[in-house]
Amino acid sequence: MDYYLSQIINGICQGSIYALMAIGYSVVVGVVGLVTFTHGEVIMLGAFAAYYTFELLGNNLVIGVLASFLASAFVGIFIFKVCYERFFNAPRHISLICTIGTSMLLRNLAQIIFGPNNKPMLEVVPNRFYGQGVVGFTLVQLIVIATVISLSFLLFIFFNRTRWGIMLRAVSQDKTAAAMMGINVRLTALLGNSIGCGLGGVAGMLLAIYYQTLVATMGGSAGMKAFSSSVLGGLTNIPSAAVGGLCLGLVENLGITISSASFRDMFAFVFLLLVLIVKPEGFGRKTGVRP
Amino acid sequence: MSQNIHQPPKSSAKEPSGLRAGLVRITALLERPAWRITFTIIGITFLAVVPLLNLQSYYMGVLCRILMYTILAGSLNVINGYSGQFNIGHAGFYAIGAYASALLSLKLGVSFWLALPLAGLLAMLVGLVVALPTLRLRGIYLAIVTLGASEIIRLIILNWMSLTGGPNGLRGIPAPVLFGIKFSRSQQYYYIFLVLSLIFFFISKRVINSRIGRAWISIREDETAARSLGVEAMRYKALNFMYGAFWAGIAGGAFSPYFKFISSDMFTLDEGFNILSMVIIGGQGTLAGPIVGAIIVNFLTEFLRPISQYRMVVYALLIIAMMWLRPQGLVGASRSVLAERNIGLRRRRKPTAPAATAVKGDS
């Protein structure tokens, strides 16, 4: 029983990282209106940005979060320029293929620059444990959950209380109407893409701290998990995407208890298929055009 | 082989000039049946004679690989280029074909000539299972599901130690024997790949010119319109996916006795992207596109062998450049939804020939 309880706690913690990835993914897809394959690579680059920041500037989590957010946001600008800007009115598959190309480019460049092998993450957070027996939280888990909750809260404030947030929501609902209201759609989409990518980067940092390791090819499965989680919200609904991430984390960890850990990535896929079979349009309210 | 069957006749177009005029004249020549048959026979004879030239086995290996990749890229092109679905995990079906034929001949002693179609059929079944949950949805879902499926297939192969040997792979796959001839050297194996790819292109040409192929193309151009004209889109999309997966399985089934050794890291996502880049660079929606793509990408692979870590970077840059400059690919279907003329810096062209002929055709 204790074992299952601790697995559920692990699941919630991993699920909250997946939720952050999925939130980023939903922001990107919602605001840009085109689907992306680069999110996994953005997550990976965020992790590496945090790694090198920790190495250079010491173990400061706040600086790490800022660095990974900014690095991934700049990568987001690059992705926007390469993959989306010219293709808003083109058939969708063109920008889709472009994101696949960019993802290949980023992943292989990262493999060349950072090396193909696993790197151990620096021990940023001391290894402490709060709880009784097996059941309880480690300090890393608490920090991960706290970071995710506070970032989601900031995003909520940003989306609902600021002018830019309202513009972002307007663009994600209807680009033409937003343009008629005098919103610079291109700039807003660029901002939204950068924010979504930045959140993905922070998720990458958390992933690296949580597993104590990072590798240039981690983007593949991370992107897949971000997508699987956000399918629950129909790819654009942010709260449902976060719930999807939590569910995915739980499904994964409970799945591992009944099989072996080498099948971890398989459960994301099973989860995705289940959602697609039961409710392919997602659980979110229908706002705007679905990609 | 290269003409697009959905193109309207080139009657009303203006007389073009220069290089383009030459190309138009050559394609017009190729469209005459007598010339086409002659050219095809000359081409096939040339391809059949190549192994007799006593090339080094390195070059024969490259040629074999090109022929195998024409089947793989061609089958992916049937999915991506003709029906507008989006499969990026083609390596999964390839892996299933390879392992099926290897295991059938190693564990059950089935002859290669029976194992090959069985490998194709197994890949086809898996293709159906993968495609079913996504048929109602648009492109991206199928793309992610195929990506995931390809990785899952690899994971299962890697972890099923008792059957597939896990990371050690399968060794000593027997070479096929026909009429007492053992196909063990690449000079001999070349003919298997050649015959398979000829069969593939012959059948695909027939299928694409048939009612089924036209249904696929209509789905690609506009699914709603196709449905409204009575095309059962779901059925045809499933059929299309199964057809592509079948040929990927055949290519895999022919590959494993050729290489004599397979392991799960030969079928990674990068392998799928490799095949995808052939289709995108060569051209989607024409039969010639994947051939051109397979030739270009395989030669690039050989050229870049000294700096092989930059190989995928070069492909990625080529894919992005292709999307920016010529989204349908080098010899892709120019007058289709795959080609987008109104991108970015390019001047918006007046809707001339295609639109005019289309209107004329409707009235």
Please characterize this protein's 3D structure.
The complex is a heterodimer of chains A (291) and B (363). Chain A is mainly alpha-helical. Chain A is 73% helix and 4% strand. Chain A is built from eleven helices and four strands, in the order H-H-H-H-E-E-E-H-H-H-H-E-H-H-H. Chain A has helices at residues 2-32, 39-57, 61-84, 92-114, 139-161, 163-173, 175-180, 185-211, 219-231, 238-258, 264-278; strands spanning 119-120, 129-132, 135-138, 213-214. In chain A, the strands form two sheets. In chain A, strands 1-4 form a two-stranded antiparallel ribbon. In chain A, strands 2-3 form a two-stranded antiparallel ribbon. In chain A, helix 1 crosses helix 9. The N and C termini of chain A lie far apart (43 Å). Chain B has 363 residues and is an all-alpha fold. Chain B is 67% helix and 2% strand. In chain B, strand 2 (177-178) and strand 3 (181-182) form a beta hairpin. Chain B starts with 17 loop residues before the first helix and ends with a helix. Mean pLDDT of chain B is 80; it is low at 1-5, 8-13 and 342-363. The interface between A and B is large, with 45 and 45 residues.
Number of helices of chain A: 11
The first-level CATH class name of chain A: Mainly Alpha
Mean of pLDDT of chain A: 85
Helical content of chain B, roughly?
A: 55-70%
Euclidean distance between termini CA atoms of chain A: 43 Å
- Largest sheet properties of chain B: 2 strands, antiparallel
Summary keywords:
heterodimer, A: 291 residues, mainly alpha, ABC transporter involved in vitamin B12 uptake, BtuC, two-stranded antiparallel sheet, 4 strands, 73% helix, B: 363 residues, two-stranded antiparallel ribbon, 2% strand, globular, disordered C terminus
Quick rundown:
The complex is a heterodimer of chains A (291) and B (363). Chain A has 291 residues and is mainly alpha-helical.
Q: How would the blueprint of this fold be written?
A:
The complex is a heterodimer of chains A (291) and B (363).
Chain A: H1 2-32, H2 39-57, H3 61-84, H4 92-114, E1 119-120, E2 129-132, E3 135-138, H5 139-161, H6 163-173, H7 175-180, H8 185-211, E4 213-214, H9 219-231, H10 238-258, H11 264-278
Antiparallel strand pairs in A: 1-4, 2-3
Chain B: H1 18-31, H2 33-49, H3 57-82, H4 90-107, H5 112-131, H6 139-159, H7 161-164, E1 170-171, E2 177-178, E3 181-182, H8 186-208, H9 211-221, H10 223-228, H11 233-259, E4 261-262, H12 269-282, H13 288-303, H14 311-325, H15 353-362
Antiparallel strand pairs in B: 1-4, 2-3
Helix pairs in contact in B: 3-8, 3-11, 3-12, 3-13, 4-5, 4-6, 4-11, 5-11, 8-11, 9-11, 12-13, 12-14
